[in-house]
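Late entry, written up from scratch paper. The run itself happened at the end of the previous shift, but nothing got recorded in the book at the time, so transcribing now.
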Amino acid sequence: MDRSKLTELIDAERQTYKDLHPKSYAAFNDAQNLFGQVPMTWMNKWAGGFPLYLKKAKGNRITDIDGIEYIDFALGDTGSMAGHSPKATVNAVTKRFADLGGATTMLPTKDAQWVAAELANRFGLPRWSFTLSATDANRWALRIARLVTNRPKALVFSYSYHGSVDEAFIVVNPQGQPASRPGNVAPAVDPTQTTRVAEFNDLPALKTALEHLDVAAILMEPALTNIGIVLPNPGYLEQVRELATKTDTLLINDETHTFSAGVGGATRAYELKPDIITIGKSLGGGIACGAYGLSQEIADKVLNAKDADIIDVGGVGGTLSGNALSVAAMRATLESVLTQSAFEKMIKLATKFTEDVQEILDRYQVPWSISQLGARTEYRFTKPAPQNGGQSAAASDEQLDEYMHLFMLNRGVLMTPFHNMALMCPATKMSDVQKHTKLFEAAIKQLFS
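Output as recorded:
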């Protein structure tokens, strides 16, 4: 690949992007009272030097304030896996908030039991509690694991992502040693003191880490998703379970992104048996929410722990957690939107997306790879596909990222800004996949011809 040509292409796409979006550019320049000029600093990750500003969104379509409509494959980085404002969720939220009132009252509603029972049926764990995000769910799950095991440490996989949980910002550095993840903002405690780390798919490394017998829980995504999709090797997840059981270590499946694997996430798709499950953003159809599920044994141990304050200020809970509005949204989304039939359609579309991209890569002999996890698919700038987080991080290419994102944006397609992930929702159409295929081939031809 000619890097000088790539630079020229990026410059041209940047100018086109700026020309197409004068209102977004002006809004960004006017946002001087916002830290980083955006509501949340990660919004600066969008390619082009400034983000698009939202006017409206529905289904898998987004319209910016310049009036340009996009096919949305980003879907809020999974937060809108149900699509934007699905009708059933809108109706439930409207009824709860406008008609019945009482979005947050510190009182339970019957919706909460319905959601807990549905999650138990889908994921296989019987006891559930609610949060406002997967970050909260992970944070509280780790506290519960430390309480139950009386062990101090967590174990995560290098370059996995579990929200802004302090213990999770740790990687295996190029020298093979545990290290704070590059860019980690001022951790209160060096994560190498709180957490052990291993590369995904490296069973001997995991075995060595667990032999210290000081790890309360393995916190893992059944497939890495935030460093590109890294799929588990055959038999790997079963061996992780065996090692956890052998060393009396709890196993937490973070299904926040891997929920894309099917109606019961990777846990159900791969027939996994975790002790705890955490999940967030996708459950509420766009309303902030999260949840964690516990085995009966762990739930009993927590409820019977004499010195653990799980009712007041013990560090497990929040005033808005499980509020009436969020559980109403979760019930509607699970009952009527993210159903078995919806997942079947979404996965079929993702499979077509993956096959089309792979065919183009093969035909043009491009040394990239693409991996699919249910309704989610993603290409990486390396071949073969990475086997762990370190390999996937090493395959990062900021220039290619910007080129691919801008090429798609300037032609009406949104990919996830953090990486080249495409997620299907119930509103996604085959024609949307076909448009991406056409544009992907055009981008490849322009780059490699």
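The longest helix spans residues 340-363.
(Scratch paper discarded after transcription.)
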